[in-house]
Amino acid sequence: MNLPPPVASGDYLIETEALTLQFKGKRALDGLDLKVARGGIHAVVGANGAGKSSLFRVLLGFEAATSGSARILGCDSAQLTPDLRARIGFVNEEHTLPPWMRVDEVTAMQRRQYRAWDEQRYHAVLRNFNVLPDQRIAELSRGERAGVNLALALGQAPELLILDEPTLGLDVVARRVFLTALMDSSYTGGTTVVYCSHQMDEIERVADQLIILERGRLLHASAPDEFCERMRLWVAEFPFRAPELGATAGVLQTEHIDGLTHLIVFDQGDQFEAQLRLLGARSVHHMPIGLDRAVNGMLARGHIGSDCSTPIIQAA
Ligand SMILES: Nc1ncnc2c1ncn2[C@@H]1O[C@H](COP(=O)(O)OP(=O)(O)OP(=O)(O)O)[C@@H](O)[C@H]1O
Q: What is the pTM of this model?
């Protein structure tokens, strides 16, 4: 793999410190400390309104932080030069391309603008969409527009690619193509990908690093497998009334199903069984859970509609 030279400040492509973005009456980012190392695919997840898009907007210099710092490719986000911008690709859910331009015109523009333009990579993605060169952007379907956007971003051969819910509106085949292209550009093209999505199946497939945001703060960061290994589904049978377990250490979510108590639990070892037995459980067993359920359990506790909105864990 042919990696570009390292950036300043260790080899973190993204670094934020106590980053806060305050709107009237709302705090989108709340003292966020985040480091994203070079290489791989980093998935940012969080409930609606957790601050994912706000983070991207501040990092790319589209929005000024209220306080704290945000650095991207070693440079203050508020001071990005055209040269640095050329090393960053960005795809957002709105797929904002000039609607009046033809696909071939937009492509020619990008080809001129980016010195590292990779024609092969561009066509490898675009050929999966039924897009004609003389079609105007406004005439494309939402999914086709997403495809053109991604092809353009990957053709740019960026050092860092930031994608804000890019697969919204894509059909299953297009989504697979998209994810394969992402993995290919990360593993063979040396692009570091930072990707935000609500699709856990996608993240499970492609992500090397999972970053969980909650209300503008970092709740967790690790490899997805590592995160799942720390989560367990415990199922206990209480012959009499099940005790209230919501406040028990590690318990993220409690459900009562067919007379059994189901608990999603973080970072608790075998002593958790003894704890449940002490509380009167007759039978207890546990099993691993997938990423979807694990993230769901983690986010449910701090969710805006939840009874318990205090985060249970700090960032790893
Ligand atoms: N211009 C704005 N004015 C006021 N509040 C805003 C503004 N932009 C974002 N917010 C608020 O900041 C919070 C974070 O928004 P953001 O778009 O970053 O969330 P998100 O994690 O991307 O959410 P989603 O998953 O729903 O796209 C939300 O509560 C949102 O209402």
A: 0.88
